[in-house]
Amino acid sequence: xxxxxxxxxxxxxxxxxxxxxxxxxxxxxxxxxxxxxxxxxxxxxxxxxxxxxxxxxxxxxxxxxxxxxxxxxxxxxxxxxxxxxxxxxxxxxxxxxxxxxxxxxxxxxxxxxxxxxxxxxxxxxxxxxxxxxxxxxxxxxxxxxxxxxxxxxxxxxxxxxxxxxxxxxxxxxxxxxxxxxxxxxxxxxxxxxxxxxxxxxxxxxxxxxxxxxxxxxxxxxxxxxxxxxxxxxxxxxxxxxxxxxxxxxxxxxxxxxxxxxxxxxxxxxxxxxxxxxxxxxxxxxxxxxxxxxx
Amino acid sequence: xxxxxxxxxxxxxxxxxxxxxxxxxxxxxxxxxxxxxxxxxxxxxxxxxxxxxxxxxxxxxxxxxxxxxxxxxxxxxxxxxxxxxxxxxxxxxxxxxxxxxxxxxxxxxxxxxxxxxxxxxxxxxxxxxxxxxxxxxxxxxxxxxxxxxxxxxxxxxxxxxxxxxxxxxxxxxxxxxxxxxxxxxxxxxxxxxxxxxxxxxxxxxxxxxxxxxxxxxxxxxxxxxxxxxxxxxxxxxxxxxxxxxxxxxxxxxxxxxxxxxxxxxxxxxxxxxxxxxxxxxxxxxxxxxxxxxxxxxxxxxxxxxxxxxxxxxxxxxxxxxxxxxxxxxxxxxxxxxxxxxxxxxxxxxxxxxxxxxxxxxxxxxxxxxxxxxxxxxxxxxxxxxxxxxxxxxxxxxxxxx
Lengths: 294, 401
Description:
The structure holds 2 protein chains of 2 kinds. By secondary structure, chain A is of the alpha/beta class. Chain A has helices spanning 5-14, 21-33, 47-57, 73-76, 82-91, 113-117, 138-150, 181-186, 197-207, 213-226, 237-249, 257-263, 271-277, 280-293, and strands spanning 37-41, 62-66, 78-80, 109-111, 127-131, 152-155, 159-162, 168-173, 188-192. Chain A contains 14 helices and 9 strands. In chain A, strands 2-5-8-1-9 form a 5-stranded parallel β-sheet. Chain A has a two-stranded antiparallel sheet with strand order 3-4. In chain A, strands 6-7 form a two-stranded antiparallel ribbon. By secondary structure, chain B is of the alpha/beta class. Chain B has 3 domains: 1-105, no CATH class; 109-177 and 222-401, von Willebrand factor, type A domain (Rossmann fold), CATH 3.40.50.410; 182-219, no CATH class. Chain B is 43% helix and 12% strand. In chain B, helix 14 links the parallel strand 7 (317-321) and strand 8 (346-351). In chain B, helix 2 (44-53) packs antiparallel against helix 3 and helix 8 (159-171) runs parallel beside helix 10 (235-251). The radius of gyration of chain B is 27 Å and the shape is globular. Chain B starts with 21 loop residues before the first helix and ends in a 7-residue tail after the last helix. Residues 1-11, 96-144 and 396-401 of chain B have low confidence and may be disordered. Classes of the chains: A alpha/beta, B alpha/beta. At the A-B interface, helix 2, helix 5, helix 8 and strand 9 of A face helix 2, helix 3, strand 1, helix 9 and helix 13 of B.
């Protein structure tokens, strides 16, 4: 647990996560007030990474629930182990046999991430990451709203499970649809922006130490400038890092138009965007980036 | 730390007594109220959270207080900038004398009428006075009128006839195209066996059930995105199209509406108002370029970049209403149409001129857009609206996108 906003920020930085003060404030408050942290932002700005780093700082387990369309109770919370139940019934000489009731006991329960997160046997609160909530459907949101209120889950056949240590919850969304306000109001909401040039340079230096300093500067300046182009999908920090790594593999020491054209696929993920930038536009962006960073 | 309010400025005008100080709380509650007036939804529970949270924050650092309040009170990206302004206005630095009285923005219905009609060029709106809701006494025996109205082209109608059409529009019921989701629900003739229920029944009955409960994929309406051209050449249809949109927004779930001339405006929330006239006035206030030029390509491009990722998931049906008269670049229009068509379930184009027997896409814009259109339909009279409604329902036949 952190004592101040500044300490939160330094702790994150020690583990190579460079948060802006706004994110540090939100994270600090989320931990203090035992609320979930709701992170929204473009893909590749480091939303998921916050949970990974936090679990390392708190030295606790990370439980991850990746959301997708159609996600329901059987994949998010629990499921009965039907094959085992059927075998059990057979072994006891058919459904009429003794003790059929107890095929609904913990022994036959498959625990999915949310149930794992509130497991009473834990000695400290885990970090629960609910990733890309916007992919799940609205029904799951209302379930989550209930769960976040009191961290208890009722299984009709078994009774109610309640967390001894409520998990530190981090929810991310790429905003492919709006999440309901009621849920966001329960959480600490934070919109993660693309990092500033200084911040991004620091990230590239730490994560891709093999890239020479001059190259790292060029990469960041180019990507920052590229984010102002009319693109369908802007490159995130993840793309900058991939690109910097790729360039070191190609033994690049300085960017030029030709290298940019050849490796543009690492930055731009839509063919329409690649077509728009490749060639003259890339050269122009490169030149402008040079001027701006000088 | 540029970008943060008051980072270098004087400290916040916060009382030196503990945060629970009654005056401070009063101010905080007032601040919440002023945010609500600006349209940022803030609950009392959130205000209480701020009061609690400020106990852990160094109050002499204005930017920390700002970020704390923001973390707890803002839940939408769109509100971030507005919140910053509101914060700086409300919590002025200490030497800024006393706080001025509240300045609340007028409620929509209190706004002066003149402000609502800055779009005076829009002829249909100018004619609004003539189109006041008429006495409903003359509704009886309008059956033959309705018959006639079905086939009369909108372009040739008198204001009275348009008024009648408007009432008919309100009565039309729309069914959305549906798509199969990944969620399952109980259905005796479904494909997969519902093991959970099988075993629960086995436990209860003490025997395996004779008929296995089954599941099938659930269905949901597809999102519907409406984009209407309101430029000069579409002027005479604009009001009618918006009324039509209003009817759709009010009767179907998951509808998003946009209008464009040279720029794109989103009017979904304005059209949610029950009263048609107020809804249309609100929408009109949102739009900057009524009856002006057209840049269809650029407007669609704005939709593609700003909104499409959020709205085109889940196999949306996209409907563009336009005559295709475009002053922008033809290549740009083709490119944006291709992008849009590749990412939605069905791209429908409604053209008021397409009903003519001898219609051919003569305008360059329409020609460029047509290769990327899935359904090209006329909307020249009420009957064609009915056909569009039928088409919308048919789109369910081809699930998945």
